[in-house]
Every structure is written in C-alpha cells, then in structure tokens.
Design goal:
Rossmann fold; 44% helix; binds nicotinamide-adenine-dinucleotide; three-stranded antiparallel β-sheet; Dehydroquinate synthase-like, alpha domain; globular; alpha/beta; seven-stranded mixed β-sheet
C-alpha cells in the first residue's frame, strides 16, 4: 500500500470523557451510531481494502451498497467482487445519478427494495458515490429499522473532503435543500483519491469550492496554497489533490469534533451555503452544489464587508481564488436578487423569521457572531444589495 493517512474523529462523549485515542470505530448492531468515534482513511488504492475495513469497523451479516448508476457502472463490479471474495454477503441498490434524485421518493424506493431483499437489522450500509449517494445512503442507514451502521466510501472530490465527514445525512424537498434529515455518524470513511481520475472536470472544480471554503473559514495559508496550486488542482494532479484532501479533511474533522450537532462553531461550515442553497434550489438542481457555494461565498463575504464584519478586500481575495479555479462568482442573470433572498427563507438556518448567515472576518478568520453564536441575522435589504446587479463594484 502506498502512503496512507489516518484521521480520527472522536465522538462528543469521548471528548467529554477525555479519551480521544485509539478507538477502532463501532461495530454493527449497536443502533448505528458511532458512539466511539470513527476513522477516516485516505490513500491511493484503498478501494481494495474496503472489505477488510468493513470486517473491522462495521462487521455485519450482510451489506447494502447504496450507490448511483454512474458510480455503479464505473466501480460497482470492482467493489462487489472484492466484497464477495472476502466472504461478505452483498446487495447493491442503485439510483439514477444527480441531485434531483436526493429525495424522499428515492429514499422510499431504496428502503422498500431493501425490505423486499430481506436486509435485516444485522446488516450495514455502504454509501458509495458522491455527496448525493452519501447523504441519501446515510439517511437510509439512519432510518432503516431505526438505524443501521454505515460506512462512507466517497468517490467525488466534494464527498471526499466534505460530505462524507460529520454525519449529516438527508434529502431535499421541493421547498429546499436538505430539509429532511438526521445526524448519523459513519463507522468509518474510506477515501481512495485514485477514483478521482474518472471524475468529470466540472465536478472536480465543484469539489474545489468546498476546499476554498475550508481555507476561508479556518486556514489562510491553506487558501494561499490553493491559489498557488490552482492550475495543478483544476487539472487533476494526483499529488496536489491528495494534499488538498488531507488538509480539508483535517479541517472538517476538527470542526465536527468541536461541535457534533452544529449548535456552535460547526455552523461556519455553512459559509456560502445560505445563498448557495437558495441558488442551487432555484436552478432546479441543474447548477452543481459547489458552483452554487462558490457564488454564495462571494455574496456572503460581500454581506460581511457591508455589515462591517469583514475587512475590505476579503471578497476580492476569495473571488480571485475561485475564478482561478474556473468557478462562477456572480449570480447568473436568470435570477434576481429578490428571488434568491426570498428562497433563503426556506433555509434551515432561518431563526425567528430572520435568516442566519455564517460569516468570516478575513480570509482564514471566522466571525464568531453576536454573543458567540457563530451566526448573524442579516436583513433582506443587505442580502439583496450584496447580490444585486453591479454589486461587485459597489461596497
Ligand atoms: P453527486 O453525488 O451528484 O456526484 C456528482 C457526479 O459525479 C454524479 O454524476 C456522480 O455519479 C459522479 N461521480 C461521483 N464519483 C465519480 C467518479 N469517481 N468518477 C466519475 N464520476 C463520479 O454530487 P457531489 O457533488 O459529489 O455532492 C453534492 C451533494 O453533497 C449535495 O447534495 C450536497 O448537499 C451534499 N453535501 C453534503 C454535505 C454533508 O455534510 N452531508 C456537505 C457538503 C455537500
């Protein structure tokens, strides 16, 4: 095996008890929560080790692999063959690829198919694919027979560096993104960067947007490195991508450990997502999540500047990195600022009728919010101003 990184996410109970070392994840049959924390394993070629990782971290009588048709076609046989050779019983449940499938309907179809196939409480789920398979597969695992253990095997950059870590699972509804869901921690996350060789360039770029977010909210040097390495990253250079995956996963893991259920600093991971989710939902999910988040980060940074939370130049700094990566940074003419702001009202972060935004003070410096709440209630007029035509030139 080539170089492998191991990052441990300790559970809240473990941190409170002061014992964050050396657990080996939880087993199956424990109600499906990673009460003992979990490991994130990162290394080229790790797909071949999934069978042994399952035996160790999520031992089960049977495994339900939940994936999309596209990933199933590319890697499904390889994974299933490996699992069969290791003596595991496996059933694959595949759904059509794309965000439009991350719905209660697909959740119901997969759950029904699992019942018909006889998947029982002695089983575990393998969520195999991009963020959609991870969120959907994880939500099936959270709810099926009151919860099965599950392992995340992310295959897109976005899922590797963000969606697979932290246990947020769920589906979209016509009113908005991720409005139905749960916290359900995986038993392990297995990341094989070699799988990125087949990822289409636009999806690679969309994943890079979440890495920019990690830099923006937590690590200015990392953000600077992303800008320097932008060409290699956008071209899919394996070494640069591996370095990016490790640093982004470290940042995400650190944040979810500090705040497992998002009552405090974990909210920062939503930077760019209030506007981003609204834009993604308005596009009928034709715009990629990372593209929408890219537009969202620029708009929300501008909101922070206008509210005096962020220093001048913060937005321009982010806009430059994102455009170097080939990501969109402005709202397409198709939607007005009014439409976007009105859609943000469906966001989960709305509190007492006002929409709450997670903001930054400067690149790499998070804003703690009024009273340390890690969020700011933003007046509609300020949000509209930051999104409106010509906003880029006006402070
Ligand atoms: P996706 O799952 O739709 O994957 C994008 C496309 O890439 C799909 O067509 C998929 O089939 C294809 N694909 C995946 N891996 C591939 C590979 N190795 N080779 C070739 N094609 C491959 O979307 P995504 O961008 O991975 O994830 C977006 C989702 O993640 C959104 O629903 C978003 O809400 C969610 N998300 C969740 C969290 C969380 O904390 N749970 C965080 C960030 C994003």
């Amino acid at each position: 095996m080539k170089s492998m990184h191991r990052i441990r996410v300790a559970a809240a109970a473990e941190i409170a008890a002061g014992s964050t070392g050396n657990g080996n994840g939880n087993g199956a049959g424990g109600g499906g929560t990673a009460a003992a924390g979990y490991e994130i394993l990162i290394g080229p070629g790790l797909l071949a080790s999934v069978p042994s990782i399952l035996s160790r971290c999520a031992p089960a009588y049977r495994y339900a692999v939940i994936t999309d048709h596209h990933v199933a076609e590319l890697y499904g046989m390889r994974l299933a063959r490996g699992l069969h050779s290791a003596g595991h019983r496996v059933e694959t449940f595949a759904f059509p690829a794309g965000e439009a499938q991350k719905t209660r309907e697909t959740w119901a179809e997969i759950s029904d198919a699992m019942v018909e196939t006889g998947i029982g409480r002695d089983s575990a789920v393998v969520a195999f694919g991009g963020g959609v398979a991870g969120d959907l597969g994880g939500f099936v695992a959270a709810t099926y027979m009151r919860g099965l253990p599950f392992v995340q095997v992310p295959t897109s950059l976005l899922a590797m560096i963000d969606a697979s870590v932290g246990g947020k699972v769920g589906v979209d509804t016509p009113a908005g993104k991720n409005l139905v869901g749960a916290f359900h921690q995986p038993c392990a996350v297995v990341i094989d960067p070699e799988l990125l060789r087949t990822l289409p360039p636009e999806h690679l770029r969309a994943g890079l947007a979440e890495a920019v977010k990690h830099g923006a909210i937590a690590d200015r040097e990392y953000l600077e490195w992303i800008e320097e390495a932008a060409d290699e990253l956008a071209a899919g250079d394996a070494e640069a991508l591996s370095r990016l995956i490790v640093r982004s996963v470290e940042i995400k893991a650190e944040m979810v450990m500090r705040d497992e259920r998002e009552s405090g600093p974990r909210k920062l991971l939503n930077f760019g997502h209030t506007v981003g989710h609204a834009v993604e939902s308005l596009s009928g999910y034709r715009m990629l999540h990372g593209e929408a988040v890219s537009i969202g980060m620029v708009a929300e940074s501008r909101i922070a500047e206008r509210m005096g939370v962020a220093g001048q130049g913060t937005t321009e700094r982010l806009r430059r990195v994102l455009s170097r990566l080939g990501l969109p940074t402005a709202l397409p003419m198709t939607w007005s600022a009014e439409e976007v702001v009105s859609r943000t009202r469906n966001d989960k972060k709305a509190r007492g009728g006002r929409v709450e935004y997670s903001l930054i003070c400067a690149p790499g410096v998070p804003a703690q919010g009024i009273d340390g709440r890690w969020g700011y209630a933003v007046a509609d007029e300020v949000a509209k101003g930051a999104l409106g035509a010509g906003a880029a030139g006006v402070r």
